[in-house]
Structure formats: C-alpha cells, structure tokens
Amino acid sequence: MIPYSRQSVNEADVKAVAKVLRSPFLTQGPAIASFEKALAKKVGAKFCVALNSGTAALHAAYAAAGIGAGDEAIVPALTFVATANAALYLGARPVFADVDPKTGLMNPKDAEQKITSKTKAIVPVDYAGRPVDLAAFRALAKKHKLVFIEDGAQSLGASYRGKPVGAQADMTMFSFHPVKSITTAEGGAIVTDNEAYYQTMLAFRTHGITNNRALMKEKNKPSWYSEMQMLGYNYRISDIHAALGESQLKRLDSFVAKRRARAQKYEALLKNVSGIISPPSDSEVAKSAWHLYTVRLGPEIADRRDEVFVALREKGIGVQVHHIPAYLHPYYASLGYGAGLCPITEQFVASEISLPLYPDLAASDQAFVVKTLKCILNTL
Ligand SMILES: *Cc1c(COP(=O)(O)O)cnc(C)c1O
User: Fold this and answer.
1) How far, in Å, from the CA of 152 to the mean position of ligand 1?
2) For 215, phi and psi rounded to 5 degrees?
3) What is the enclosing helix (H) or strand (E) of 277?
4) Closest approach atom of ligand 1 to CA 180
5) For the residues 66-83, what does the mean pLDDT come to?
6) Which residues contact 294 (CB under 8 A, 6 or more apart)?
7) For residue 299, what is the DSSP state?
8) Is the N-terminal amide bond of 323 cis, ω within 30° of 0?
9) Cβ contact 181:157 at 8 Å
C-alpha cells in the first residue's frame, strides 16, 4: 500500500536518538530546551514549549488563554477532533465555524458571526498545510478582545506574507506526529511571543509545578522547594523525542520543498482530468507546507466519492478523507451537536479525497496514483 503520508527518518536522526540513549538524561534533560530553542528560532518566535503531543499542546494553549468552564472557543468544522476536544477538556464549548469552499480554511466572516459574550478564543486551522488569512483573524481577535490561537499542526514550514507560520498569532501549535512536517513520533509544541503564556504552559506541562524562584508565591524558601500553583498534567516530551525533533528540524526546508514539488506535479498531471478539482496552488501571500494533497470530485460525480475511494484502496493506494467534522461524531451528537451546522464543510468533506503526499513519494508511485485515478473515473 502506498500510504497517504509517512515520515522520513535518516541515519542522522538515528544517531541523535542513540546519543540521548547513552546520556544521563532520557527525560527532563538538555535536549528539550535545545529543541525548543531551535524551533523558536526557525519560526521567529520568542518562546517555545514542547509537549508530548499536539493535542497536549492545544490543551496547554487553551489553558494559558484562560479558557474555562462556560467559555466558548471558535474552531473550524473542517479539522481533526483535537482542536475542538481541547475546549471540552476545560469545560468550555467549541463553537464551529464554516470554511471557504475553495481552500477549506475557516471563513473569518462566518467565525465573526459566531462570536458571543462567552467567546474567549478563536482557533483557525491551517488545513492541509495552507496558512489561514492570519491578518483577518488577527484583526478579528483584536476587535473582539479574543485570544488568537493558530492550530498549525499541519503547517510547520508554511509561510504567510513572507514570514514563517509561528509568530503571527498569539500562540501557534505544531504537531510532530509522523504524518506531519517533521516528527518526534508523538509530540507537539506551542510557540509564542507572550512570556506570561509561556510560563503558564511550562508549568501546565509538568503538574502545574514551577521551579522558578522569581515566580513563586512563597518567598525565601530553601533550594529544594518547588511550588504547585495550578492543576497541571504530565505532558512532558522526553529527551529522546526532542533529539529526534531537533535532528528532523534541520531538514524541514527540504521536506517542504519535496512536498511542494510533488504537489506541483499532481497539479500538472491532474490539470485536464475532468471531475477532479485540485487544491489551490501557493499564492504570493500564502505558501503551504503541503501536508496533504486534497482533491475534490466535481459536482457531477461528487456523490460517487466512496466508490472512487474504495477502488483506489483496492489498487493499493492509501487515500484518506480529511476530516470528519468533529460535530458529526456520536460523542458530539450526545452533547447536542448535529448535521447541518456547517453546510459548506459538510459538502467539502463529502467530495474530498487526500492523495498520497510525502517527501519520499517516488515519481513512479505518483504516476501510478494519477493513472489509477484516471482509470477509475473513466469507468464511472
Ligand atoms: C494532528 C493534528 C492535531 C493533533 O496533534 P497530535 O500530535 O496528533 O496530538 C490537532 N489538530 C490538527 C489540525 C491536526 O492535524
């Protein structure tokens, strides 16, 4: 099976991990701060906190934003469930906004209509690796005094108006799951320029405990003293994972360049294939990290998506659908959400297929994907 995505791990990565395994610290050692510093520098942010998953990172960011019981966070309907779930963890309610029918990115106008007196944060997602309209969301957050958290799980390595994604929202989250831009196996991070958010997330990651003398409530305590100031979690990343992340980060630009080249190849190969709508290409403003290559079937055949999907899988092509809107899952139904909330998202997802895309995707495999897809469409 040609997977829809997979990691690229080389000997340098293996060596970086082995070095930690032979060192005194497997966790809570120097590799974590080293990775955080490298990532902050790469995206042009002041601070970075690495955690043991992107989901933990979202939880930490929402907590730092002060989201609590009774609050609302606006999230796009077209995302992985974690973006919405992180609000539920804190007793808040995710409110779903609809997306742009071409890009699949949260529509700032629909998001604005969903703002209420309870809204605390707005959390657009860089779907498929393409940055959202960061300027529009920044303006919206400012106007309504909301915290702007960017779910950049899919977009590390993307840029907006010539600057890397990462220092343009109040906080930006990245995921290092093996299908994302770089991997730590499991892992995630938040980057921010805000020191107060940074300190809160550092403590949140480790039970709410701080060792920082300057931040302690109790003064003049002996040096063994540490202080639990809030309810936190064990969301620490290990030094093993962090070392893998720092080694991978060195190849981020080349990973994204390879993804982009393969996306451009798909675009050229699929240009005149009737019934296939390719995702928008990069623009001057927004350059995607090309996490996914998301084609949609045109309106004349959209209702046959599942047939096309199954036929591709039968030929050994590991296509996927991104994403089932969170509110259509049974758990969300039990909370009172239901179909019809975001009709454009529902239509988008119903016609969507993610084709295999990753840095080491072979040219012959890519040609096979396109040839097979054309064949299947011809027999519909
Ligand atoms: C992958 C992903 C997450 C969750 O990240 P994990 O590291 O798997 O916990 C959250 N949001 C989006 C949009 C994602 O793609």
Assistant:
1) 9
2) -100, -5
3) strand 276-277
4) 1
5) 98
6) 104, 127, 128, 279, 322, 352, 353, 354, 355
7) T
8) yes
9) yes
Both tokens of residue 5?
């995505």
**What average pLDDT does range 160-164 have in this prediction?**
97
CA pseudo-torsion sign 282, 326, 308, 312: positive
pLDDT band at 256 (very low <50, low <70, confident <90, very high): very high
Cite the DSSP H helix spans in the chain: 11-21, 30-43, 54-64, 82-89, 108-113, 134-143, 195-205, 239-249, 252-270, 305-314, 330-334, 343-350, 363-378
d(CA 175, ligand 1 centre) in Å:
6
Ligand 1 site residues, Cβ closer than 6 angstroms: 53-55, 79-80, 82-83, 125, 151, 153-154, 175, 177, 188
Mean pLDDT score, 215-236? 94
Residue bearing the CA closest to ligand 1, atom 7: 54
Among candidates 71, 128, 142, which has minimal Cα distance to 99?
128
**E strand or H helix that includes residue 296:** strand 293-297
Alpha carbon nearest to ligand 1 atom 6, residue = 54
Q: Which tokens go with 126?
A: 């860089």
Q: Which atom of ligand 1 is nearest to the CA of 177?
A: 7
pTM above 0.90, yes or no: yes
Mean pLDDT confidence for 288-310: 97
| Beta carbons of 90 and 68 less than 8 angstroms apart | yes
Distance CA 263, CA 257 (A): 10
At 37, list the tokens: 């510093």
Partners of 121 in the β-ladder: 73, 147
What's the token pair of residue 248?
């991978």
Q: What is the mean pLDDT of residues 156-172?
A: 97
Distance 305 CA to ligand 1 centre (A): 25
pLDDT at 167 over 90: no
Out of 53, 156, 175, mutate this one to test ligand 1's pocket (max ligand atoms within 8 Å of CB): namely 175
In the predicted structure, residue 234 carries a pLDDT above the cut 90: yes
Q: What is the pLDDT of residues 331-351, one digit of tens each?
A: 999 999 999 999 999 999 999
Atom of ligand 1 lying closest to residue 125 CA: 13
